[in-house]
Amino acid sequence: MTRDYQYLFGPVPSRRLGRSLGVDLMPHKTCSLDCVYCECGKTTHLTLTQKEYVPVDRLQEELHSFLKNEPELDVVTFSGAGEPTLHSGLADIIQFINGRFPKYKTALLTNGTLFYQQSVRAQVTGIDLVIASVDAASEAIFRQINRPHPQLNLSAVLDGLFALRKEFSGRLWVEVFLVPGLNDGADEVRRIQEVVDRLRPDRVQLNTLDRPGTEKWVEPLDREGMARIAACIHKTELIAPLSAAPCSGGALEDIPGRLLAAIRRRPCTLADISKMLDISEAQAHRYLAPLLSKKVVSQKEMPRGTFYIA
């Protein structure tokens, strides 16, 4: 029998993490930032308020239903269409996975803005990997790229990350998303390097626009520019292209439902969909056709190909 999962999506092929089961804790698009490059679209609920945005018991029920079959996964990842640390029950969900399904590693994709609160740092104690964003090291650039909640300032955000580094026993990676003309200049790169040197993350990953972003004027930084900046920041790597390997292990049964759940959270190419669902591109197009005709899904051309957007 096909199960309708409301909060789980995938498994999806992650460029960084392999086969990843997504856990979306937040309503679309609830976040503390409104980043110009965000692939999930413009933030519609800009907030710093923590609460139980979606029911913890429902999340745990879905996780149990899916993980009890012991699917082949590399990681269970808290990500999606909002900032996961805004959910007040994050620690409970992490503990549920660790207690019931300890074979699975867990990861958190976060903008890192709320770690200035000790209670938020305590929430992630049990997770294996935190990947936090540091897109700027000056207040002006932070406001231009990340467009934060009015009560947020970069100094507090960075202090929170430094505190997390001291207290957190898991792995900490930093992602720097490069926006040409804003944070790729020599001065801002030098400031980011100083932050990274103080933070001492286990890994630094440079990223740039790969899928359609929120603002049409945002362009990807070319590979030469990426390599130039990578040479300036210690322990840095460029985020690799997607593997050609399919991502079928333990997949949610309903292919149209999986497809729509995935592209609601991030735009995908036909090749992305093919890998994620372990079907041919021709089959993927057949599933997309009715969604396109009903205008549930639209298309956008990007350097990597045609992206499908819910």
Could you characterize what this model shows?
There is one protein chain. The protein has ten helices and 13 strands. The protein has helices at residues 56-67, 90-100, 118-123, 139-146, 154-167, 186-199, 223-230, 255-265, 270-277, 281-293, and strands spanning 8-14, 18-23, 30-31, 45-46, 75-78, 106-110, 129-133, 171-177, 203-207, 236-238, 268-269, 298-302, 305-309. Helix 9 crosses helix 10 (281-293).
What tags apply to this protein structure?
310 residues; alpha/beta; TIM Barrel; three-stranded antiparallel β-sheet; 10 helices; 13 strands
Give the SSE map:
Blueprint (H helix, E strand, L loop, with lengths): L7 E7 L3 E6 L6 E2 L13 E2 L9 H12 L7 E4 L11 H11 L5 E5 L7 H6 L5 E5 L5 H8 L7 H14 L3 E7 L8 H14 L3 E5 L15 H8 L5 E3 L16 H11 L2 E2 H8 L3 H13 L4 E5 L2 E5 L1
Parallel strand pairs: 2-5, 3-4, 5-6, 6-7, 7-8, 8-9, 9-10
Antiparallel strand pairs: 1-2, 11-13, 12-13
Task: Sum this structure up briefly.
The protein has 310 residues and is of the alpha/beta class.
